[in-house]
Write a structure and sequence with these properties.
Helices cover about 40% and strands about 15% of the residues. It is built from 45 helices and 32 strands. Strands 1, 2, 3, 4, 5, 6, 7 and 11 form an eight-stranded antiparallel sheet that branches. Strands 19, 23, 27, 28, 29, 30, 31 and 32 form an eight-stranded mixed sheet that branches. A hairpin with a 5-residue loop joins strand 14 and strand 15. The structure holds zinc ion (3 copies). One zinc ion (ZN) binds next to helix 17. The site of one zinc ion has 7 residues, from loops. InterPro entries: Papain-like_cys_pep_sf, Peptidase_C19_UCH, UBP14-like, UCH_repeat_domain, USP, USP_CS. This is ubiquitinyl hydrolase 1.
């Protein structure tokens, strides 16, 4: 049933002829031999009604490749569309009714009789009245296509037509998505309607695409222009704005050009992608009286009706009075003032603030009758003489207001029952209104006669769950029918292929909701059918994606421990898939799992738009065979060699050509299960590539296959391998006999001879370490001799590297079962009884303490992490003082009970453990308890890179301890680990202010210490490695509550200098650790002279002075660009822009001056920043100049560890190692199983903007010859010798 290569297709595709390269859904005869869906029935079974939905313009091949961005770009589809019922709601609020309005001259308009409302005035008419013509009155309606909305007291311009020519676009129009194919549109006059189409009905209905503000209303056939009075008001506003811009002289603000003003109102364009129909709609064009006042007056009258009228009649009467006043002014030339306190005025309307506002809007100013007296107040009718510009404008405005108030009044009256007006005798108005709804709904194809309503299953009525589904499909629930849903879905997929999964998801959700709400199965049959058809075409939803990702092992608590996101690349997915397949071969429900894996790969290949993954899916997928079944299919035994398999396969295919697919699948499965490059190569090319191993050059380093969760371990193991002396020390331990080792128990005295990491080690630890090194040696052997391109570290090796002995012991102690050996071996012989938990935790603050105060700097995934355990100190009981802020001063212990085995520091010295990470983040929460970790992690407690590194180094050192030769006294550099990785530094704790003087009670503390890492805090941009190190070597710490200067100098340098870039930073605001992606510039060489204890004091002083200024300068830059509320300049610019452009809020305080001030501030900040940056650059140059001749301690970059990912807690790790000693300009990139050669430019690249950046750099002393990168066994050389 499941046949991936050949998914069921719409048969219609087969008989579609192809003049347009398109696919029709169901068409008339003439386009193919089949008609009316008969052909389809064969494919889909008789019940499928979905194939009968008419829809054209589809292209099967294009839909198949919806995920391919390049293909999509070629097709230029217009994006999501909407069906007519939703368009009708988009044109204007569906709760509002739009009306056609026409106006004619009122009867008796030429009569000169005096108005009844103008009593009490003796003023006589002084000007000659010019009554408006019938034409003038007709044009009081803004446009032939303007429709009145009572709820807005405004107008909406609507027009629709079927035309092969689109209206001219506005100058400013810049479509955000392509316009529908015009050629296709021209072929069909309208999707809706009968018998008009040359080829019959091609589409179920229209599919409209919106283009916002696309058409200039002034360029319509009947242009729409704002009236002079409106223009004047708009112009006034614009002029005011322009003047203000000139005043501020800010050139960054776009001053409206004269041409811009030529553009009129911009209309939204809705174009059907299938036919010539389009539709235009404007925003609401507001009426003369703001709708707020209109509503207020009506409300006021409803709640305070006149005594002699019903509430409704009172409203009517008030509006009619306004109409009368307007008519008298416009048509009768009534020019007398209206005393607002007059009895008639009072009884008809009353005098309220709203009335006052309305008359102000109408241009009737309020004036006292007699200028010298306050009362009585009167309304002064405006001048409307058409011979003056002002009069002409006012005349237009009053006429418009009159039409609007009339329309409003009539609609109000129509909307109430006639009895609600009592016996009130309404005035006859010369304006008529008529609902336009049916007309425009028919025009755009949304009329109920065109699209039936009321077919939504009852269970779905009022189901808000589906709102996103309806909206996404571009339809409304009320217009639901299976056909329409089918059409909407197919049309969206056709026009917006990129979002195919979203649309499929909608379909899926609709079906789910139908099921859960109990829609009878008969009513959802069609949807179900469509869903199945689409599923069989490989369509998937976001839910399917989630499931697929989980099957492949994605998810933080899943096998891969990584979420599927943009960071995950093809390679990674492919590997996860192959691993999944391998696992499935041992699973009981392996077949089902393989099916899921194939489906998941298909989904991910589409999600990632990856041709490579899709190819893998197409070529490598089997039919769900297990390896056993595969061998059976080819009738060979499992032991048969690759070359024999190829021969067998070739014959089998010749014998039974019909079985080729099956055979091929079988061989594919075998190739994967054997991990055979040769078979893969054969499957890919059809040619036996021979022994593939030969293709991987013998002198290439080998890769390491990844083991589950071991992310960074491979980088470390490869790193260790490149270090010649380490490799040579470890290799001989490949052949360790553990039997004898366990028997050969060391005496307690033996154990007291050595300290590793400042403490004694246990028998158990020694045994464990030997096991580790034994495994490591075996791995090294494989890396040297293996002929295959990548080898796999053992589980044991990974476990021993990732889990510290302390973890292991703790876990054992927590567990109920006690390892028998634990009792005897886990004892810390020399310190008497088993240490308390506290002590042990403190010892394991950094799980492996190589040397007190040196390796102890704590660490985290990519750098330092402060533990809840507090700072490490050597023996709790000897701590004499514990300063604040992790600054611990400890008297060097006289090694409590051990005699004379003091550490490498003199007994009189002060032990200092400083916290080098500044600013110091609060402690992170303790790790999750083991129980939780257990289920999700392969090795229980997961350590971070540097802990793991420390653990490995500890074990190497411990395993190499020599208990029989007494050479291993405490002299530092006896062990290979100490010799290679450890240097000596001197720390001085001095007063912050030099003038504090040496006599201060705070004497200068000084001591020497070993170190294996230098730390560079990575949090800010624009720093190079010297800058970072400077902060390490000269820092300010808090000691005994006082700030002190911590100066560090280097006394002795190790051959390998490991510099850790501490990318894990702590965000105080969010209380979250995050990864800093800042770029730290580094080069191939670094000179450490300036940090040496022996550096010239006067240069140091000079450098320090410059550094202080530079730091201050950088602090200021930081404050402006990255500190709290930063960056300032863009923020200020944004605020100014926002305030200037927004008009939703009325902010009294915000005037143009205020905005100008903000802008000036922005410029100021930008200027300061520029200045500071220039200054910082100059100081940096000065600083480098001080040291330019100090080049006697050159170190060369040899290894770079990269973490790629946005989060500090997971990601992908890889590693670069320089090809030493042979080709120093060439580098190897170790990416798990792949090792490739890359140019040095890749290693040194500026990583700004990337999430892949170094977390550790290793430099080696020039000419120290400690790194031999490749070290491969060379048989040729052997023969030569
Ligand atoms: Zn409205
Ligand atoms: Zn259409
Ligand atoms: Zn469309």
């Amino acid at each position: 049933m499941h046949d991936d290569r050949n998914p069921p297709r719409y048969t219609i595709n087969d008989n579609w002829p192809d003049a347009f390269g398109t696919m029709h859904w169901d068409t008339t005869p003439g386009w193919g031999e089949s008609s009316s869906g008969k052909g389809d029935v064969n494919a889909w079974g008789a019940s499928s009604a979905t194939n009968k939905v008419e829809i054209d313009g589809r292209n099967f091949e294009e839909e198949e490749n919806w995920w391919d961005a390049a293909r999509r770009a070629e097709c230029k589809r217009p994006g999501p569309g909407v069906l007519p019922p939703l368009l009708s709601e988009l044109l204007h609020n569906p709760e509002h009714t739009l009306y056609s309005v026409s106006a004619s001259l009122p009867k008796h308009s030429h009569s000169n009789s005096t108005s009844s409302t103008s009593s009490g005035s003796s003023q006589s008419q002084s000007t000659i009245h010019h009554p408006p013509s019938a034409e003038e009155v007709r044009k009081a309606v803004p446009h032939a296509n303007a429709y009145y909305c009572k709820e807005h007291n405004g107008w909406v311009l609507l027009s629709w037509c079927s035309s092969t020519v689109l209206p001219p676009f506005a100058r400013s129009f810049n479509p955000s998505s392509p316009l529908p194919d015009q050629a296709r549109r021209k072929r069909t006059q309208s999707c809706v309607g009968e018998g008009e189409q040359p080829f019959g009905q091609a589409n179920k209905t229209h599919h409209f695409h919106k283009y916002e503000r696309a058409v200039d209303a002034r360029m319509l056939n009947t242009p729409f222009k704002r009236s002079e009075w409106e223009e004047e008001e708009l112009l006034k506003r614009r002029r005011r704005k322009m003047t203000l811009h000139e005043e501020t002289m800010d050139t960054s603000v776009k001053v409206p050009q004269v041409e811009d003003e030529v553009e009129g109102d911009l209309l939204d364009l809705y174009v059907c992608c299938q036919c010539s129909v389009y539709c235009l709609a404007s925003q609401v064009i507001p009426g003369v009286i703001p709708v707020k006042y209109v509503e207020d007056l009506t409300k006021d009258k409803l709640s305070h009706p006149s005594l002699d009228k019903t509430a409704h009649a009172s409203v009517l009467s008030a509006w009619e009075t306004i109409i009368t006043i307007l008519q008298n002014r416009i048509f009768k030339g009534e020019n007398r003032v209206l005393p607002v306190t007059g009895a008639k005025f009072q009884s008809k309307i009353g005098w309220t603030p709203v009335i006052r506002q309305i008359f102000e809007q109408l241009g009737f100013p309020l004036r006292p009758l007699v200028p010298s007296e306050e009362q009585p107040q009167t309304l002064q009718p405006p001048e409307i003489d058409p011979s003056t510009p002002a009069g002409r404008r006012m005349r237009g405005k009053l006429l418009r207001a009159w039409v609007e108030v009339c329309a409003y009044t009539i609609i109000f009256q129509k909307s109430k029952s006639s009895t609600s007006f009592g016996n009130y005798d309404a005035q006859k108005l010369s304006v008529t209104v008529e609902s336009a709804r049916e007309m425009y709904q028919t025009g755009i194809g949304a009329h109920v006669n065109q699209i039936p309503r009321g077919l939504l299953p009852d269970n779905l009525l009022g189901c808000t769950d589906l709102n996103d589904v309806w909206e996404g499909l571009g339809m409304t629930p009320s217009s639901y029918s299976h056909d329409l849903v089918t059409f909407a879905y197919l049309a969206q997929c056709r026009c917006d292929p990129a979002n195919t999964p979203t649309y499929f998801g909608h379909l899926h959700k609709l079906h789910e909701v139908m099921k859960t709400t109990g829609v009878p199965s008969s009513a959802r049959e069609e949807i179900e059918m469509l869903l199945l058809q689409e599923k069989s075409r490989g369509r998937w939803s976001k839910e399917d994606l989630k499931r697929g990702a989980a099957v492949l092992g994605f998810g933080l608590d899943n096998a891969l421990g990584v979420d599927l996101d943009d960071e995950v690349d093809e390679e990674f997915i492919l590997r996860a898939w192959k691993d999944g397949l391998k696992r499935s071969w041992t699973m009981e429900d392996g077949n089902e799992r393989r099916m899921q894996l194939y489906d998941a790969l298909k989904i991910l290949s589409e999600l990632k738009s990856s041709k490579r993954l899709l190819d893998a899916w197409t070529h490598e997928k089997g039919s769900g065979m297990s390896p056993d079944a595969a061998y059976l299919a080819l009738q060979v035994s499992k032991e048969v060699e690759d070359d024999m398999l190829i021969t067998v396969y070739t014959f089998a295919v010749q014998d039974q050509p019909s079985q080729i697919e099956k055979m091929r699948n079988a061989l594919t499965v075998i190739a994967e299960s054997r991990d055979s490059q040769r078979l893969r190569g054969f499957l890919e090319t059809g040619v036996d590539p021979g022994d593939v191993v030969q293709q991987v050059k013998m002198d290439m380093p080998r890769g390491l296959n990844q083991l589950g969760n071991t992310c960074y371990l491979n980088s470390l193991l490869q790193y260790f391998y490149t270090i010649k002396d380490l490799r040579e020390a470890v290799t001989p331990l490949a052949a360790t006999d553990f039997k004898t080792l366990e028997e050969k128990k060391l005496s307690d005295d033996d154990l007291k001879r050595h300290r590793v990491g400042g403490r004694l080690v246990t028998r158990r630890e020694i045994l464990r370490s030997k096991k580790f090194v034994n495994q490591l040696a075996e791995l090294f052997w494989n890396l040297e001799y293996s002929e295959i391109p990548a080898v796999t570290p053992t589980m044991d090796l990974a476990k021993l590297a990732l889990v510290t002995s302390q973890d292991e012991e703790e876990d054992d102690q927590c567990g109920t079962a006690t390892d028998a050996s634990n009792d005897t071996d886990a004892t810390l012989v020399d310190d008497g009884p088993l240490p308390s938990r506290t002590q042990e935790r403190s010892n394991s603050a950094s799980p492996v303490v190589m040397s007190p105060g040196s390796m102890s700097d704590g660490s985290s995934v990519l750098g330092k992490r402060t533990r809840t355990d507090g700072p490490m100190d050597v023996d709790m009981d000897s701590a004499v003082d514990k300063g604040k802020d992790s600054y611990v001063v400890v008297e060097k212990p006289e090694a409590s009970s051990s005699k004379g085995k003091a550490g490498h520091s003199g007994s009189a010295e002060v032990e200092m453990v400083e916290d080098v990470s500044k600013p110091q983040p609060p402690a992170l929460p303790p790790r999750k308890p083991r129980e939780v970790d257990d289920s999700v992690m392969m090795f229980g407690r997961q350590h971070d890179v540097s802990e793991c590194m420390d653990n490995c180094m500890f074990q190497i050192e411990t395993a190499l301890l020599d208990f029989h030769e007494m050479a291993g006294t405490e002299d530092d550099k006896t062990s290979v680990v100490k010799r290679l990785f450890y240097g000596k530094k001197r720390q001085r704790l001095a007063p912050l202010d030099a003038s504090e003087g040496a006599v201060s009670r705070y004497s200068v503390h000084e001591k020497e210490d070993l170190f294996s890492h230098l730390h560079v805090n990575v949090s800010e941009e624009g720093y190079d490695l010297y800058d970072g190190l400077s902060r390490y070597f000269d820092d300010v710490v808090e000691f005994e509550g006082v700030k002190r200067r911590m100066e560090v100098t280097l006394v002795d340098l190790p051959p390998l200098l490991q510099i850790q870039l501490q990318r894990v930073q702590f965000d105080r605001e969010t209380q979250q650790a995050y990864k800093s992606q800042a770029y730290v510039k580094f080069g191939e060489t670094i000179y450490l002279d300036r940090f040496m204890d022996t550096a010239a004091p006067e240069k140091k002083a000079r450098a320090k002075a410059i550094q202080t200024r530079l730091n201050a300068c950088r602090d200021r830059i930081y404050k402006l660009t990255q500190g709290k509320h930063a960056p300032f300049a863009p923020a200020l610019g944004g605020v100014a822009d926002f305030l200037e452009k927004q008009d939703a809020l009325r902010l009294e305080e915000v005037d143009d001056d205020f905005i100008a001030v903000i802008k000036a501030e922005k410029d100021h900040v930008s200027a300061v920043l520029e200045q500071e940056r220039a200054e910082a650059g100059k100081l940096k140059e000065e600083l480098e100049a001080v040291w330019k001749d100090d080049v006697s301690s050159p170190y060369e970059l040899t290894s770079v560890f990269i973490h790629r990912g946005a989060s500090p807690s997971w990601g992908h790790y890889f590693f670069y190692s320089r090809h030493l000693p042979d080709k120093p300009d060439s580098w190897f990139k170790y990416n798990d199983s792949d090792v490739s050669i890359v140019p040095k430019e890749e290693v040194l690249a500026d990583t700004t903007g990337s999430t892949a950046n170094p977390y550790m750099l290793v430099f080696t002393r020039k000419d120290s010859d400690v790194v031999h990168t490749v070290h491969r066994f060379d048989a040729d050389q052997l023969q030569d010798a």
